[in-house]
Amino acid sequence: MNAVEEVLLAARGRRETEGDVVFLTDYVLAVRIGAYRHERHGPQQVRFDMAVATPARPPLAPGEVVPLCGVLSYDRLVEAIEATVAEGHFDLVETLAERIAEKILQEPLAECVSLRIEKLELKKARAGTIITRRRD
Predict the structure, then answer these.
(1) Please, what is the end-to-end C-alpha distance for the chain in angstroms?
(2) Which of 12, 26, 41, 132 places its Cα 20 to 30 Å from the Cα of 61?
(3) Three-state SS for 46?
(4) Domain for residue 62, yes or no?
(5) Would you give the DSSP letter of residue 116?
(6) Using CA atoms, how far apart are residues 1 and 132, in angstroms rounded to an integer?
(7) CA distance to 9, 36, 60, 99, 100, per residue, from 19 (Å)
(8) What is the span of the domain harbouring residue 89?
(9) pTM (2 decimals)?
(10) How far apart are CA 22 and CA 56, in angstroms?
(11) Cα dist. 104→35, 38, 79, 93 in Å?
(12) CATH of the domain at 93
């Protein structure tokens, strides 16, 4: 199941009617991450996939456009990832995921975030975590 599917499943638990989802996939960034000694010598390539559930927008009138203030820009998702990564070394992908999710849920339109983080430089596999967090 991918990150978009994860957040859609999580969003079904909301009491509101259907909402919208903003997503970002295949965002790869060099990250200082890892608990092992050999992982502390330099950054590793890490892939981020994220989906964020937002409230449903009302239908548009003919000729009306969606106002920018009425959407959660995917730029905010990228900014949350980059700002968190810039904080320094993370021993665990789970810690990195929690910190990014916290930043996303500070966005006024973000109701639920599903985040998949995958370390790409393991020798024979890839590994990571998937979390889903909702605003309280």
Answers:
(1) 25
(2) 12
(3) strand
(4) no
(5) E
(6) 13
(7) 12, 41, 15, 24, 22
(8) 3-57+69-134
(9) 0.85
(10) 11
(11) 25, 31, 9, 16
(12) 3.30.1130.10
